[in-house]
Design a protein that fits this description.
14 helices, elongated, six-stranded mixed β-sheet, three-stranded antiparallel β-sheet, Nucleoside Triphosphate Pyrophosphohydrolase, alpha+beta, Endonuclease III, domain 1
């Protein structure tokens, strides 16, 4: 992916000066990735911050950096350990891409994070905006950025009324991002425009009275802050119900399966999942070889994803030590009393935690009863 062309004779940025002044007095200066600002540390923070807010990212970032202080340690780790430290942060493809990219950096770039825009943008999970942000923040190079927060700032300031996902709007916003990016103070400017979108020019209730760009903002002058950018059509939230089998041996270990890399909870370890109670019971009889015992229904667990709600009905069943056969790399016995460092979805971790102390949340219904 070629870097955007830089113009050395472009007019001064219309927003850089007030943004830099605002950042100096009101911006965020205490974020953990702002200290020892190497390309590696900035890269990890930018990936974690994709679709996730700073407050949620901070503790994950600090734990991640303690375990993986550099590219080499990340590349050498097992993907399960990377996913383990990511568990609960969501959008797990980001963690797998970080791990893959670290291996590429070690193999192709001698363990040093690449310095050219093209090489950075070729890494898994990094697009044009993220590549530009890494190089601007870490090395002070001039690259415009266009993450979700910056899109909103530019759309309101310049009055871009098209839906931000349209090709025309994206082209226009990149042109504006290029025009607004100054030729000096690149780390400060890049952080400032991201901070403004995250803390002042927010989606629902923008704080226009404290915005340094208010005087020139088209949306504010015309009273259209809530209309620009236009909201996407609301999706109807779906609701899914599934059954999960908690096959537990006498030693407390529970059978887990690795999920495919694509789809929900990609690459994580999870309980065997079924769409119907009859399918779950068939698995218990067939794959687990348990015919006499009736599964015990545990308390249901609700979990919200971005576009749908999931209701999990866990079914606890005792399992003999020799059942079932464990396929290498696809299934494992997970000891809840001495848990391995693997990636678990947050609701599965919450479900298994009480089992470690012998407590079993029970909704007092037999698994054969319909209604779930």
């Amino acid at each position: 992916m070629p870097a955007p062309r830089e113009s050395t004779d472009s007019p001064a940025s219309p927003i850089a000066a007030p943004l830099l002044e605002w950042r100096a007095r009101a911006g965020r200066h205490d974020l953990p990735w702002q200290t020892d600002r190497t390309a590696y540390r900035v890269w990890v923070s930018e990936i974690m911050l994709q679709q996730t807010q700073v407050a949620a990212v901070r503790p994950y970032y600090e734990r991640f950096m303690r375990r993986f202080p550099d590219v080499g340690s990340l590349a050498a780790a097992a993907v399960d350990e990377v996913l383990h430290l990511w568990s609960g942060l969501g959008y797990y493809a980001r963690a797998r891409n970080l791990h893959r990219a670290a291996a590429i950096i070690c193999a192709r770039h001698g363990g040093e994070f690449p310095r050219t825009f093209a090489a950075v943008a070729e890494l898994p999970g990094i697009g044009r905006s993220t590549a530009g942000a890494i190089l601007a923040l870490a090395h002070g190079e001039r690259h415009p950025i266009l993450d979700g927060n910056v899109r909103r700032v530019l759309a309101r300031y310049f009055g871009v009324t098209q839906g931000l996902a349209t090709a025309a709007a994206v082209r226009r916003l990149w042109e504006l991002a290029e025009r607004c990016t100054p030729h000096a103070h690149l780390p400060e400017y890049t952080q400032a425009i991201m901070d403004l979108g995250a803390t002042v020019c927010v989606r629902a209730r923008p704080q226009c009275a404290s915005c340094p760009l208010g005087a020139g903002c088209v949306a504010r002058r015309t009273g259209r802050q809530r209309e620009i950018p236009p909201s996407r059509a609301a999706r109807v939230r779906r609701r899914r119900e599934i059954f999960m089998v908690v096959a537990r041996r006498a030693d407390g270990s529970v059978l887990l399966e690795r999920r495919p890399e694509s789809g929900v909870w990609g690459g994580l370890w999870c309980l065997p999942e079924f769409l119907t109670l009859s399918a779950a019971r068939a698995y218990i009889r067939g794959s687990l070889g348990i015919r006499a015992a009736s599964p015990r229904r545990l308390g249901a667990i609700a979990h919200a994803f971005t576009h749908f709600d999931l209701l999990i009905h866990p079914l606890l069943v005792p399992c003999a030590a020799g059942k079932p056969a464990v396929e290498e790399g696809a299934t494992l016995w997970y000891n809840v009393r001495a848990p391995a460092r693997i990636g678990l979805p947050a609701p599965i971790a919450a479900l298994l935690a009480p089992l470690a102390s012998g407590r079993v949340p029970d909704d007092s219904r037999p698994a054969e009863q319909p209604g779930g």
